[in-house]
Amino acid sequence: MADYYAPPPGPPPRRPVPLVTWVIIGALAVAVAVLATLLATRDTGGSGGRVPRLGSTNVTGFDVPKKLSHTAVEQFITSRLNATNVVCNGGRDFALKADGAKFTCTAAGGKRFTITITDAESGHYVVS
Question: The domain containing residue 88 runs over which residues?
Fold first, then answer.
C-alpha cells in the first residue's frame, strides 16, 4: 500500500479587525473633522452683519489686522446720504487699530465726510 501524507499546513487564517477598532477609528475621524470645522469657522469678534468689513484671521497664529472695507463705507454713504462718486480713504481699506481713529471720504460737489471708528473690535463707525 502507498503512503499518503497530509499536505503541509498553510499560513494561519487572518483574524478580522474587530468592529470596536473600526468604531474607534471612525469616532476619531469625526472628532478631528468637527474640531477642524469649529476652528476654521469660529467668530473672531465680527460685527454680526451690521457693518460690512473684512474680518481678521488667525489661522497661522499671527493676527492679521482687521480692516474696514472702503467700498462698504462708500456704498453706505451713497445709499444713505445721497452722495455720488464717493471715495473713502483714498480707495484703500482702513485698518481698525483703535477706537476714535478717523479717515475721510470725498464725494461729488466737494462734499467731505469724516468717518470715526466707535468700536475697532466690531468695526462700528459713525459718519459726520
Answer: 67-127
